[in-house]
Amino acid sequence: MPKSPDPERQLASFLAKFTPEVAELAEAILNQMRRRYPTALELVYDNYNALAIGFSPTERASDGIFSIALYPKWVSLFFLQGARLPDPTRILKGRGNVVRYIVLHNPSLLDDPAVTTLMSEAAARARVPFDPNGTHRLIIKSVSDRRRSRRPATTETTKPKAKKKATA
């Protein structure tokens, strides 16, 4: 049986599929998240729509507290148990029963007082808390065979086609 690839290298190869700007933003955000939650398990899902990197106290996705999702033009921070979080500044987006998110245009947004308060509250209210004595691990959970492009569509492919005039 062939040896599975090193998770760090595999994650680097996933990030390399994005534009340099999105990849650099994601790496800066990941570094901040790793410093803030050093005992979290990082669960990586290279899905059809996005590359998602969850921060969880266990290997179960349902126990996840945060997730960073990379899209062709932006990176979002998901609060995986965020629907019940108090959000007095109304920065959380989404209307689902469980998850809320914010778009991170730069890594300094993680230091915004409203965001740090939400993150602290999310960690404190989590069904399963981060283990203060735990050990960080990067775990590649799934890799989809098919994925949308990780780069923005070019203007040529996004221009609407001219409509044909109807003839009488």
Describe this structure in words.
This protein has helices at residues 7-15, 20-36, 113-125, 155-158; strands spanning 41-46, 51-56, 66-70, 75-79, 100-104, 137-143. With 168 residues, the protein is an alpha+beta fold. Strands 5-4-3-2-1-6 form a six-stranded mixed beta sheet, with helices on one face. It is globular. The N and C termini lie far apart (67 Å).
Brief descriptors of the model:
168 residues; alpha+beta; 4 helices; six-stranded mixed β-sheet; 6 strands; globular; 26% helix
- Shape estimate: globular
Radius of gyration: 18 Å
The poorly predicted ranges are none
- Spell out the helices and strands N to C: HHEEEEEHEH
Count of individual helical segments: 4
Largest sheet: 6 strands, mixed
Q: List how many beta strands DSSP finds.
A: 6
Separation of termini? 67 Å
Global mean pLDDT: 88
DSSP strand (E) fraction?
15-25%
**Order of strands, widest sheet:** 5-4-3-2-1-6
DSSP helix fraction = 25-40%
User: How does the helix and strand content classify structurally?
Assistant: alpha+beta
Task: Give the helices and strands, then pairings.
Blueprint: H1 7-15, H2 20-36, E1 41-46, E2 51-56, E3 66-70, E4 75-79, E5 100-104, H3 113-125, E6 137-143, H4 155-158
Concise synopsis of the structure shown:
The protein has 168 residues and is an alpha+beta fold.
